[in-house]
Write a structure and sequence with these properties.
binds heme C; mainly alpha; Cytochrome Bc1 Complex, Chain D, domain 2; 6 helices
Length: about 120
């Protein structure tokens, strides 16, 4: 009888351990911060409301907040200057994104945004 109980308890512990490990494995890709990050998707999700899908800034919000066209700003601003603005924010409407995204992710976002000037 005692053996039976011991087996049940051990079984339960092993079961719980299994659940812990599988949940941990399921979440590891998001823990390293890079996997699953797509500059294209994040731009569409977080930036295009103001900067527009094509980078022109011609959205309702973009027009109101006077967002400039990337085809113009790319001639005046370096990639580093743009990274600074995305990290620190600028003016009343452009927020700082350094809490949400790592430096590598911000660089990727700015690269994607700048690539829109060539289309
Ligand atoms: C709520 C509107 C809004 C959102 C959302 C937004 N921006 Fe901006 N962004 C602006 C405005 C307005 C400026 C111009 C700020 C100024 O010069 O005073 C700007 C400026 C910039 C600049 C500097 C070049 C320029 O046009 O002056 C970059 C680069 C930039 N944004 C990238 C991004 C990225 C990347 C995202 C998404 C992660 C983003 N922005 C989200 C409104 C927005």
């Amino acid at each position: 009888m005692q053996r039976y109980l011991l087996r049940r308890v051990l079984g339960a512990i092993l079961g719980a351990l299994f659940v812990c490990i599988t949940t941990l494995l399921a979440f590891t890709p998001t823990l390293d911060g890079q996997a699953g990050f797509s500059a294209h998707d994040v731009y569409l999700d977080k930036c295009s409301a103001c900067h527009a899908q094509d980078g022109s800034g011609k959205t309702v919000k973009g027009r109101k907040d006077k967002v400039k066209d990337i085809r113009q700003t790319i001639k005046k601003m370096s990639e580093d200057q743009m990274i600074q603005i995305v990290e620190k924010g600028k003016g009343a409407y452009m927020n700082s994104f350094s809490k949400q995204y790592s430096p590598e992710q911000i660089k990727a976002l700015v690269e994607y945004y700048r690539s829109l000037a060539g289309q």
